[in-house]
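Appendix B. Extra example for self-study. Work through it before the problem class; the solution is given directly after the inputs so you can check yourself.
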Amino acid sequence: MSAVTLLPYADFLGISISGTKDGAPLLVMPFSEGLIGAPGRLHGGAIAGLLEIAAIAAIDATLDEPADARSIFKPITVTVDFMRMGKLIDTFACGEVVRVGGRIANVAVTAWQEGADRPIAAARMNLAISPKAEG
Amino acid sequence: MTPPEPEATFDLSRFLSEARDGHTVALGLAYVDSGADWCELALAYDRRLVSDATSGILASGPIVSLMDMATTMAIWAKRGGVRPHATLDLRLDYLRPARPGNTVHGRAECYRLTRRVAFVRGIAHDGDAGDPVAHVAGTFMLLDV
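Solution. C-alpha coordinates for the complete assembly:
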Protein backbone atom coordinates (compact mmCIF):
# COMPACT_ATOMS: atom_id res chain seq x y z
CA MET A 1 0.00 0.00 0.00
CA SER A 2 1.36 3.40 -0.96
CA ALA A 3 1.54 6.41 1.35
CA VAL A 4 -1.79 8.20 1.55
CA THR A 5 -2.36 11.89 2.22
CA LEU A 6 -5.72 13.34 3.16
CA LEU A 7 -7.43 16.45 1.79
CA PRO A 8 -7.61 19.84 3.59
CA TYR A 9 -11.27 19.18 4.50
CA ALA A 10 -10.06 16.13 6.48
CA ASP A 11 -7.96 18.46 8.66
CA PHE A 12 -11.03 20.63 9.21
CA LEU A 13 -12.90 17.60 10.60
CA GLY A 14 -9.82 16.46 12.58
CA ILE A 15 -9.52 13.20 10.64
CA SER A 16 -6.28 11.24 10.51
CA ILE A 17 -5.08 7.81 9.42
CA SER A 18 -4.69 5.53 12.43
CA GLY A 19 -3.63 2.32 10.71
CA THR A 20 -4.92 -0.18 8.19
CA LYS A 21 -7.77 -2.66 8.13
CA ASP A 22 -7.99 -5.43 5.53
CA GLY A 23 -5.33 -3.61 3.51
CA ALA A 24 -7.13 -0.24 3.38
CA PRO A 25 -6.43 2.92 5.41
CA LEU A 26 -8.30 3.04 8.72
CA LEU A 27 -9.41 6.60 9.47
CA VAL A 28 -10.31 8.10 12.84
CA MET A 29 -12.36 11.22 13.47
CA PRO A 30 -11.80 12.12 17.15
CA PHE A 31 -14.79 13.71 18.84
CA SER A 32 -14.78 17.51 18.88
CA GLU A 33 -17.44 20.18 19.47
CA GLY A 34 -17.44 21.19 15.81
CA LEU A 35 -18.92 17.82 14.86
CA ILE A 36 -22.08 18.10 16.96
CA GLY A 37 -25.48 18.21 15.26
CA ALA A 38 -28.56 17.78 17.43
CA PRO A 39 -27.77 17.87 21.17
CA GLY A 40 -25.87 14.73 22.16
CA ARG A 41 -25.39 13.51 18.58
CA LEU A 42 -22.81 13.88 15.82
CA HIS A 43 -23.98 15.78 12.73
CA GLY A 44 -24.91 13.47 9.85
CA GLY A 45 -22.96 15.70 7.47
CA ALA A 46 -19.75 15.23 9.46
CA ILE A 47 -20.22 11.44 9.39
CA ALA A 48 -20.88 11.58 5.63
CA GLY A 49 -17.71 13.66 5.21
CA LEU A 50 -15.68 11.01 7.05
CA LEU A 51 -17.17 8.28 4.82
CA GLU A 52 -16.27 10.15 1.62
CA ILE A 53 -12.72 10.81 2.82
CA ALA A 54 -12.27 7.14 3.77
CA ALA A 55 -13.60 6.06 0.36
CA ILE A 56 -11.12 8.25 -1.50
CA ALA A 57 -8.27 7.17 0.82
CA ALA A 58 -9.07 3.53 -0.01
CA ILE A 59 -8.68 4.22 -3.74
CA ASP A 60 -5.62 6.36 -3.07
CA ALA A 61 -3.95 3.40 -1.35
CA THR A 62 -4.26 1.26 -4.49
CA LEU A 63 -2.38 3.74 -6.69
CA ASP A 64 1.33 3.89 -7.44
CA GLU A 65 1.30 7.69 -7.25
CA PRO A 66 -1.10 8.54 -4.44
CA ALA A 67 -0.85 12.31 -4.85
CA ASP A 68 -2.64 11.95 -8.16
CA ALA A 69 -5.76 10.42 -6.67
CA ARG A 70 -7.87 13.53 -6.21
CA SER A 71 -7.14 14.85 -9.68
CA ILE A 72 -8.04 11.48 -11.20
CA PHE A 73 -11.15 10.44 -9.21
CA LYS A 74 -14.12 12.82 -9.15
CA PRO A 75 -17.16 11.89 -7.06
CA ILE A 76 -20.29 11.38 -9.17
CA THR A 77 -22.71 9.96 -6.61
CA VAL A 78 -22.68 9.17 -2.92
CA THR A 79 -25.48 7.33 -1.12
CA VAL A 80 -25.28 7.33 2.66
CA ASP A 81 -27.34 5.12 4.97
CA PHE A 82 -27.47 6.05 8.64
CA MET A 83 -27.99 3.05 10.93
CA ARG A 84 -27.30 4.35 14.44
CA MET A 85 -26.97 7.79 15.93
CA GLY A 86 -23.42 9.07 16.22
CA LYS A 87 -22.44 9.35 19.87
CA LEU A 88 -20.10 12.09 21.10
CA ILE A 89 -17.08 9.79 20.92
CA ASP A 90 -14.42 8.91 18.32
CA THR A 91 -15.61 7.55 14.96
CA PHE A 92 -13.72 5.18 12.66
CA ALA A 93 -14.16 4.48 8.95
CA CYS A 94 -12.62 2.22 6.35
CA GLY A 95 -13.38 1.84 2.65
CA GLU A 96 -13.34 -1.19 0.39
CA VAL A 97 -12.59 -0.67 -3.29
CA VAL A 98 -15.22 -2.85 -4.96
CA ARG A 99 -14.10 -2.22 -8.52
CA VAL A 100 -11.82 0.13 -10.40
CA GLY A 101 -12.82 -0.13 -14.05
CA GLY A 102 -11.78 1.86 -17.09
CA ARG A 103 -14.11 4.78 -16.41
CA ILE A 104 -15.70 4.32 -12.99
CA ALA A 105 -14.51 3.33 -9.53
CA ASN A 106 -16.98 1.93 -7.00
CA VAL A 107 -16.19 2.00 -3.27
CA ALA A 108 -18.13 0.76 -0.25
CA VAL A 109 -17.31 2.37 3.07
CA THR A 110 -18.48 1.88 6.66
CA ALA A 111 -18.23 4.01 9.81
CA TRP A 112 -18.45 2.73 13.37
CA GLN A 113 -17.76 3.78 16.95
CA GLU A 114 -18.13 0.88 19.37
CA GLY A 115 -16.88 -1.94 17.16
CA ALA A 116 -16.75 -2.53 13.41
CA ASP A 117 -19.64 -5.01 13.78
CA ARG A 118 -21.92 -2.16 14.91
CA PRO A 119 -21.82 0.32 12.00
CA ILE A 120 -23.36 3.77 12.52
CA ALA A 121 -23.36 4.62 8.80
CA ALA A 122 -22.34 3.22 5.44
CA ALA A 123 -22.01 4.66 1.96
CA ARG A 124 -21.50 3.64 -1.61
CA MET A 125 -19.63 5.98 -3.88
CA ASN A 126 -19.19 6.06 -7.64
CA LEU A 127 -16.28 8.13 -8.90
CA ALA A 128 -15.36 9.06 -12.45
CA ILE A 129 -11.82 8.24 -13.50
CA SER A 130 -10.32 11.05 -15.57
CA PRO A 131 -7.78 10.08 -18.19
CA LYS A 132 -4.29 10.99 -16.98
CA ALA A 133 -3.16 14.40 -18.13
CA GLU A 134 -0.97 14.38 -21.22
CA GLY A 135 2.60 14.96 -20.46
CA MET B 1 -53.90 12.65 11.01
CA THR B 2 -53.94 16.07 12.61
CA PRO B 3 -51.04 18.32 11.76
CA PRO B 4 -49.02 19.33 14.83
CA GLU B 5 -49.70 22.80 16.21
CA PRO B 6 -47.04 25.28 15.14
CA GLU B 7 -44.81 26.34 18.02
CA ALA B 8 -45.60 29.89 19.09
CA THR B 9 -41.95 30.89 19.25
CA PHE B 10 -40.88 29.03 16.12
CA ASP B 11 -38.70 31.12 13.81
CA LEU B 12 -36.62 29.10 11.37
CA SER B 13 -34.54 32.14 10.38
CA ARG B 14 -33.08 32.35 13.90
CA PHE B 15 -32.13 28.71 14.37
CA LEU B 16 -28.64 28.90 12.80
CA SER B 17 -27.77 32.43 13.97
CA GLU B 18 -28.61 31.53 17.58
CA ALA B 19 -26.40 28.43 17.60
CA ARG B 20 -23.13 29.01 19.48
CA ASP B 21 -21.26 25.82 18.63
CA GLY B 22 -21.60 22.58 16.72
CA HIS B 23 -21.08 21.53 13.13
CA THR B 24 -23.25 24.24 11.51
CA VAL B 25 -21.29 26.96 13.30
CA ALA B 26 -17.95 25.35 12.37
CA LEU B 27 -18.97 25.33 8.70
CA GLY B 28 -20.47 28.82 8.88
CA LEU B 29 -23.87 27.82 7.48
CA ALA B 30 -26.24 30.78 7.11
CA TYR B 31 -29.99 31.05 6.67
CA VAL B 32 -31.18 32.60 3.39
CA ASP B 33 -34.94 32.09 3.09
CA SER B 34 -37.73 29.62 3.73
CA GLY B 35 -41.37 28.88 2.96
CA ALA B 36 -44.11 26.47 4.01
CA ASP B 37 -42.16 23.37 2.99
CA TRP B 38 -38.72 24.57 1.91
CA CYS B 39 -35.58 26.21 3.20
CA GLU B 40 -32.49 27.73 1.60
CA LEU B 41 -29.10 27.96 3.34
CA ALA B 42 -25.72 29.29 2.25
CA LEU B 43 -22.19 27.96 2.71
CA ALA B 44 -19.55 30.67 2.23
CA TYR B 45 -16.35 29.62 0.46
CA ASP B 46 -13.62 28.64 2.91
CA ARG B 47 -10.18 27.33 1.96
CA ARG B 48 -10.25 24.90 4.89
CA LEU B 49 -13.09 23.03 3.15
CA VAL B 50 -11.38 22.22 -0.14
CA SER B 51 -10.55 18.81 -1.59
CA ASP B 52 -7.29 19.95 -3.17
CA ALA B 53 -5.26 22.99 -2.08
CA THR B 54 -4.00 23.65 -5.63
CA SER B 55 -7.34 23.72 -7.43
CA GLY B 56 -9.19 25.24 -4.46
CA ILE B 57 -12.28 23.22 -5.34
CA LEU B 58 -14.66 22.66 -2.44
CA ALA B 59 -14.73 19.06 -1.17
CA SER B 60 -17.99 17.18 -1.59
CA GLY B 61 -18.31 16.60 2.16
CA PRO B 62 -19.28 20.18 3.13
CA ILE B 63 -21.98 20.07 0.42
CA VAL B 64 -23.41 16.94 2.09
CA SER B 65 -23.51 18.82 5.41
CA LEU B 66 -25.14 21.85 3.75
CA MET B 67 -27.82 19.67 2.14
CA ASP B 68 -28.35 17.56 5.27
CA MET B 69 -29.10 20.79 7.15
CA ALA B 70 -31.19 22.42 4.38
CA THR B 71 -33.33 19.27 4.09
CA THR B 72 -33.62 19.06 7.89
CA MET B 73 -34.83 22.67 8.08
CA ALA B 74 -37.27 22.11 5.18
CA ILE B 75 -38.86 19.38 7.32
CA TRP B 76 -39.03 21.75 10.31
CA ALA B 77 -40.65 24.38 8.04
CA LYS B 78 -43.29 21.85 6.95
CA ARG B 79 -43.85 20.53 10.50
CA GLY B 80 -43.97 24.01 12.04
CA GLY B 81 -41.28 23.48 14.64
CA VAL B 82 -37.87 22.12 15.53
CA ARG B 83 -38.80 18.46 16.03
CA PRO B 84 -36.44 15.50 16.34
CA HIS B 85 -35.70 13.28 13.37
CA ALA B 86 -32.82 11.16 12.12
CA THR B 87 -31.41 10.92 8.60
CA LEU B 88 -32.26 7.51 7.15
CA ASP B 89 -30.50 7.95 3.83
CA LEU B 90 -29.17 10.75 1.73
CA ARG B 91 -28.02 10.55 -1.88
CA LEU B 92 -26.08 13.26 -3.64
CA ASP B 93 -25.39 13.50 -7.35
CA TYR B 94 -22.43 15.78 -8.02
CA LEU B 95 -23.16 17.43 -11.38
CA ARG B 96 -20.06 19.61 -11.55
CA PRO B 97 -17.47 21.13 -9.18
CA ALA B 98 -18.46 24.35 -7.41
CA ARG B 99 -16.44 27.34 -8.63
CA PRO B 100 -13.64 28.19 -6.18
CA GLY B 101 -14.51 31.34 -4.23
CA ASN B 102 -18.27 31.11 -4.77
CA THR B 103 -20.81 30.76 -1.98
CA VAL B 104 -22.80 27.54 -2.37
CA HIS B 105 -26.55 27.72 -1.79
CA GLY B 106 -28.53 24.70 -0.71
CA ARG B 107 -32.26 24.78 -1.36
CA ALA B 108 -34.36 21.85 -0.18
CA GLU B 109 -38.03 20.96 0.04
CA CYS B 110 -39.94 18.42 2.08
CA TYR B 111 -42.25 17.12 -0.65
CA ARG B 112 -43.97 14.41 1.36
CA LEU B 113 -44.58 13.82 5.03
CA THR B 114 -46.05 10.57 6.35
CA ARG B 115 -46.64 9.61 9.96
CA ARG B 116 -43.07 8.36 10.42
CA VAL B 117 -41.06 9.45 7.41
CA ALA B 118 -40.20 12.74 5.69
CA PHE B 119 -39.17 12.69 2.00
CA VAL B 120 -36.89 15.48 0.84
CA ARG B 121 -35.14 16.68 -2.29
CA GLY B 122 -33.12 19.70 -3.28
CA ILE B 123 -30.30 21.27 -5.20
CA ALA B 124 -27.03 22.99 -4.43
CA HIS B 125 -25.87 25.80 -6.72
CA ASP B 126 -23.12 28.42 -6.71
CA GLY B 127 -24.97 31.43 -8.05
CA ASP B 128 -27.32 30.18 -10.76
CA ALA B 129 -30.11 27.87 -9.59
CA GLY B 130 -30.55 26.82 -13.22
CA ASP B 131 -27.03 25.37 -13.27
CA PRO B 132 -26.80 23.33 -10.05
CA VAL B 133 -23.64 21.73 -8.68
CA ALA B 134 -25.52 18.89 -6.98
CA HIS B 135 -28.91 17.23 -6.60
CA VAL B 136 -29.98 15.62 -3.36
CA ALA B 137 -32.72 13.16 -2.40
CA GLY B 138 -33.23 11.69 1.04
CA THR B 139 -35.49 10.33 3.74
CA PHE B 140 -35.67 11.12 7.44
CA MET B 141 -37.31 9.12 10.23
CA LEU B 142 -39.44 11.22 12.58
CA LEU B 143 -38.55 10.52 16.20
CA ASP B 144 -41.38 12.25 18.07
CA VAL B 145 -44.28 10.11 16.79
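Self-check: Chain B has a mean pLDDT of 92. If your reasoning did not lead you there, revisit section 3.
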